[in-house]
Amino acid sequence: MTANNNRLTIILSAAGLLLLLPLVAMQFTSEVNWTLSDFVIAGILLFGTGGLIELAIRKINQVSLRVWVILGILLVLFLVWAELAVGIFGTPFAGS
Questions:
Q1: How many Å apart are CA 83 and CA 43, to the nearest integer?
Q2: I want to staple 32 with a disulfide (CB 3.0 to 4.6 A). Which of 12, 20, 25, 76 is the partner?
Q3: In sequence order, which residues have a C-beta less than 8 Å from that of residue 52 and are 6 or more positions away?
Q4: Where does the chain cross the membrane (predicted)?
Q5: Any idea what DSSP says for residue 31?
Q6: Do the beta carbons of residue 64 and residue 28 sit within 8 Å?
């Protein structure tokens, strides 16, 4: 059980560190201008993705299926991120 908790700690720490990147960048340049809602949405995406990946690792025993599920989770993350960032699909979800 300790290995599972260590893995979860690493995943959530990595998500937290990724959230620190724009915060630090905002201190040095005006090109990065995130609001509180940007950090909340990014946190939901990162921590949610990390949690789903951890769930897939714990619950799926077949390695090939586990890899495909994790790749699917990451694909959904990147598509949602791209839609929120630049509206590649033009949905109301991105504010277009």
A1: 16
A2: 25
A3: 73
A4: 36-55, 67-90
A5: S
A6: no
Question: So what's the pLDDT on residue 96?
Answer: 58
State whether residue 96 is helix, strand or coil. Answer: coil
Q: Is the dihedral of CA 11, 17, 21, 23 positive or negative?
A: positive
CA distances from 60 to 35, 52, 85 (A): 37, 12, 32
Confidence of residue 5 (pLDDT cuts 50, 70, 90): confident
Q: At 19, which helix (H) or strand (E)?
A: helix 2-28
pLDDT in tens, 18-66: 999 999 999 999 998 999 999 999 999 999 999 999 999 999 999 999 9
